Amino acid sequence: MTKKVLIVEDEFIVASNLKQVLERSGYEVIGIAASAQEAEEHLQRDKPDIVLLDIRLQGERSGIDIARKLKSEHIAFVYLSANSNQKILEEAKMTYPDGFLVKPYRKKDLLIMLDIAWYRHAHSLETKNNQEIHVQKQITEIITENSDNQQKLLKIAEIMQTCVPFDLITSGLRPLNTGQYNDKGYLRVGFDEYQFIGEKELLTITNLKRPALSVILANSHLDINTNIYNNDPVNEKPNVPSLQKTLIDTFNIQSYLVFPVVLSNGQSFHYFFYSRQKNIYTNIHISLLDNLRTGLATLAEKMIYGENLAISKNTPVHYERKLQGNTLNYPEFRSIIGNHHLLLGALDLAAQVAFYNTSVLILGESGTGKEKLAQAIHLLSPRKNAPFITVNCAAIPVALIESELFGHEKGAFTGAIEKRKGKFEQADGGTIFLDEIGELSPEMQVKILRFLQEKEIQCIGGNSLTKVNVRVIAATNRNLEKEVAAENFRLDLYYRINVFPITLPSLRERRSDIKELSIYFAEKFCSEFNKPFHGIVTSMMEEMIAYDWPGNIRELENVIEQSAILNDGKSKLELKRTLTGKATIPVTTPIKTFEDVKNIQAETEREYIISVLKQADGRVRGANGAAQLMNIKPTTLESKMAKLKIRREDL
Ligand SMILES: Nc1ncnc2c1ncn2[C@@H]1O[C@H](COP(=O)(O)OP(=O)(O)OP(=O)(O)O)[C@@H](O)[C@H]1O
């Protein structure tokens, strides 16, 4: 299919040159616009598949203004700009372009960028359309089912979370009734756990008395139109708190989106989405809500005037788990511990993309749970019964990686004594997880790119191509954009794998999860070592919460494992080493990498085991043997000794 391109560029010579290049390469150029207004006129006449968009244009409006319109009409666009002003680039980034080329660019780069932009756009559109249909269907189900208002709102919260992220959702009629707070809402307290927020709960949480709340309600502004705020509610009277300001302060809100719907009697009903993340809401969310407007208005009407107007008289439910049998149940996430909003945001994205074949790029520091998340995405996908194959691209020697990934024929090279299937073929029908993709050599990057484009592989020594049906989830702890800039990573591969990026927060960005994670690991290890778990001493917990965790969750897991091994089974777990980077053993080299942290941990554990073995005269098993002194199974101690390379001569 010939793709139709609109060029929005105010320099005539550049635009004509572009037109020639595109037409020679098989694109149909449907027009050239020099200003935002001309671009709009073109868009009214004909819908292009892709728009090439200069940021600075003739007239007052820029390419960024056109970009917002293109996004809401789901038209792919690529910025072409010589502008390197950071503020403008940030603003352009917020419009979520499908590509960006900095002038001057080579013809080849332009054509590759167009190809990639189309691929990214088509994939995100497919995801978006499917998601919209799914959400629409679920809203209809909620409208028709026989549940009370509180349950309906809870279900809406759960559904909307997959497409409009929030930490608090509230809803109610406007104008506000100043005598009583009638809005109902849910505060997110876990991945699928919400706390109901009505008047009573709001008064308790804010510690306000009802008269004070009435003043606040009277001072609250009315949002007439759909709007996005970034911690700056407008129309505020100075020094008099409004409802928005109260919610912002109480729940640490950084941005929010207001979406009003009009009921059939002309009344206005507002949905509010509040987030603890800055600048999270965009026109994409508004356009999605616009498409769901009818359903959301009918639901609001049902909640206000429906048969079940009276809110359930049952005792108020504070923490409400998802109802059994709910379609949105995610047991795959149960072992992913933590409730921090940055983690929940990442899980939301994972749940959204899991169902599709889209490639996913998981970003995050070492040990933040990238592999765990990749596994959860696989288990949530229709591929869950097929294999999930992990490849650590950094751990396989360069000489072996091609055969490891794509397999080899018998005799393909010295040592290839028999035919061997590669990881891609092993993963057929399922998912391949390419961990540390940033470490791949340039040659392997080309091969992975070819697979992503053609879905075909060629094994070493083979002379035919084999089709394989594999979804790729990649992960890296490197900044791939920097690697691209340094020409270590191919731009075209970067765009292919960066279709759906998910960033996992570091542990120091989500300190509020440290306690829960520590208890989870402590219970796990104590049960593994057959020791009763009596808790964790307060000082250890305090130190762990204050620590920066360069090795993230893996390091935390190791620290707890070590404490569990060294615990006598009768008292609370105690920290057995300092968490300042200055371990109990002297550190001669500064800690720079995660490897350094792992080495220190292993060294500490090794020293300790050797000292207990010495105490037990070298005996592992039996009464007063080292295993008994450490209160762990002899087999566990033996495998630890093997792992830590502890030999007789060390004692
Ligand atoms: N949210 C979580 N809840 C419980 N355990 C977790 C969580 N995240 C990670 N883990 C555990 O922490 C360890 C490290 O996680 P994982 O291997 O997935 O991290 P990673 O980011 O892939 O690390 P690397 O970058 O080194 O490959 C694993 O044992 C994993 O099970």
Number of strands: 19
What percent of the residues sit in helical stretches (DSSP H or I)?
A: 40-55%
β-strand percent reads 5-15%
Domain tally = 4
* CATH superfamily membership of the largest domain: GAF domain
What would CATH call the architecture of the largest domain? 2-Layer Sandwich
InterPro entries: AAA+_ATPase, AAA_lid_NorR, CheY-like_superfamily, P-loop_NTPase, Sig_transdc_resp-reg_receiver, Sigma_54_int, Sigma_54_int_dom_ATP-bd_1, Sigma_54_int_dom_ATP-bd_2
Keywords: ATP-binding, DNA-binding, Nucleotide-binding, Phosphoprotein, Transcription, Transcription regulation
Pfam family, one: Sigma54_activat
GO molecular function, one term: DNA binding
